Structures are given as C-alpha cells and as structure tokens.
Amino acid sequence: MENDNSTIVKEFILLGLTQSRDIQLLVFVLILIFYLIILPGNFLIILTIRSDPGLTAPLYFFLGNLAFLDASYSFIVAPRMLVDFVSEKKVISYRGCITQLFFLHFLGGGEGLLLVVMAFDRYIAICRPLHYSTVMNPRACYALLLALWLGGFIHSIMQVALILRLPFCGPNQLDNFFCDVPQVIKLACTDTFVVELLMVFNSGLMTLLCFLGLLASYTVILCRVRGSSSEGKSKAVSTCTTHIIVIFLMFGPGIFIYTRPFRAFPADKVVSLFHTVIFPLLNPVIYTLRNQEVKASMRRLFNQHIA
C-alpha cells in the first residue's frame, strides 16, 4: 500500500461532460456542426482583413488577431473533446495535460489583454481623435501585440510552474472534459491551500480587474458620445456595444471559474463548455456582423472569386 501511494501519476482519466450517451451524442453533433460552420468563418475574417487594402486601420489589425487567437484557442479543447465523445476510454497523459493547460491560459490570457488593447484603441479614436494617428501608428500596434503575447506567456508559465511543483501520487480522475487548473490542483497529494490562493490571484484577480477596467473605459467612451446623432458617433456607439458584448462573453465565465475557491459546482462543466468552445469561435463573428466595412469587404471578396 505504501508503494502504491508513492506512485507518480502518468495520465489522467477525463470523466467528460456527461455520462449519458444520448446527451453525449447530441452535444457531439451540435458542436461538430457549430465547429465546421464558425471556424472557417474566423479564417475568412483573417483572409478578408489581410487581403483588403481598405482595412488597414488598427481596429481591423486587432480584429484579425482576435480571430486568429480565438481560432487557435478553439483547437486546444474542442477536437479532443469530440474524439473523446466517441471513445470508450478518455485518457490524457500528464505531459499532454500540462501542455493543454499551458496553451489554454497562454492564448486565453493573450486574448484578455487584446481586448484591453482594443478598448485603448477605441478610447484614443473617440476621445482623442486628433492624436489617434500619432498614438496608434503601425509601430505602436506591433509593440502592443508583442506585449499582449508576452503577457499571455508570463501568465500561463506562472500557472504551469505552480502545477509542476505539485506531487500527483493518488487519484487521477478529472471531473471535466479537459485539463484546467481547478480540477488538476484538487488531485495533488499535498495541501494546496497556498497554491489555490496564488492561482486565484493570478487568474481570478487578473480576469476581474481586466473586466472592471474594460467596463469602466467603455462607460467613459459611451458617456462622451451620448446624445450625438452624427453618423460617426452612431458608428462609435455600435462598435463599443459590440466590444462590451464580447467582454461579457469572454470574462463572465472566466470570473465564475477562477475568482472563487476551487470547489465543484453543478454549472462548472456547462460554463467551461461555453468558455472554451462556443464563445471563442463566436467573438470575431459578433464583431464582423456589426461591422459594415468588414461585411462589405467580404462580399467583394466573395464576388471576385465567383466572377
């Protein structure tokens, strides 16, 4: 028995989204259809922005990067989850689990910071229009992009470093369909109170502060444009409203998951499903559907290819 307790866990068993085969089949079909329709849409957004010389403003530069980040993010969880739906044994290696966790927080942290950058871009464009071309020049845009990628990497590597220090020598069943911090920490065969506090500080506090800061910034912007009926101001309100919708979709589930003690709640799996699979694919589409310039460019691109 003592020897068994000292065994190092080499793999984790994923219990999945649900144990009902009927529900699994239904979710599998719905997510597969959603994935095959929306994912190409994200790549179409990237192609449209890169191929249209009229979409060179910083707003479209960052929108293209958002589409790329979200498309990449969707590859971390969704494909494996779809495979697991039709597999009898849902197993992920220890290294595979850590890798999945790293990229989940690397791209997720980078996307959160990208939304902050996009809010800054809108603030300068609406509240300081005379300084916009000076502040948001191409060099500054690439510097901001590099900074958000670096910020996502630092955030993720801190998560992974804390997990790698934990011993796993007993239970290896993860009550979820992917590897994430709350479930993995609970399987460590040591006291994890301090680690949980550090994780909540790293993920939860950062998520909450970004969310509140973004809401405050867009409130300021909307207050500046309130009462104006000009076309430019109406466009600004529409753009900011779209950003606010995406902020709630991005940060709402993250706040629910990471800003509380790591205890299981009945809604955890459903929230995680929307957070890791559904919302990331929807975010760029929401931006595009409310942006007349991108939609017009897509129509021109489509007409060129069928002409």
From TrEMBL:
Compartments in which it is found: Cell membrane; Membrane
Membrane topology: Multi-pass membrane protein
Family: Belongs to the G-protein coupled receptor 1 family.
Function: Putative odorant or sperm cell receptor.
Domain of life: Eukaryota
Keyword Transmembrane in record: yes
GO molecular function, one term: G protein-coupled receptor activity
GO cellular component: plasma membrane
InterPro entries: GPCR_Rhodpsn, GPCR_Rhodpsn_7TM, Olfact_rcpt, Olfactory_Receptors
Spans traversing the lipid bilayer: 23-47, 59-78, 98-120, 141-164, 205-225, 237-258, 270-289
Name of the protein: Olfactory receptor
UniProtKB keywords: Cell membrane, G-protein coupled receptor, Membrane, Olfaction, Receptor, Sensory transduction, Transducer, Transmembrane, Transmembrane helix
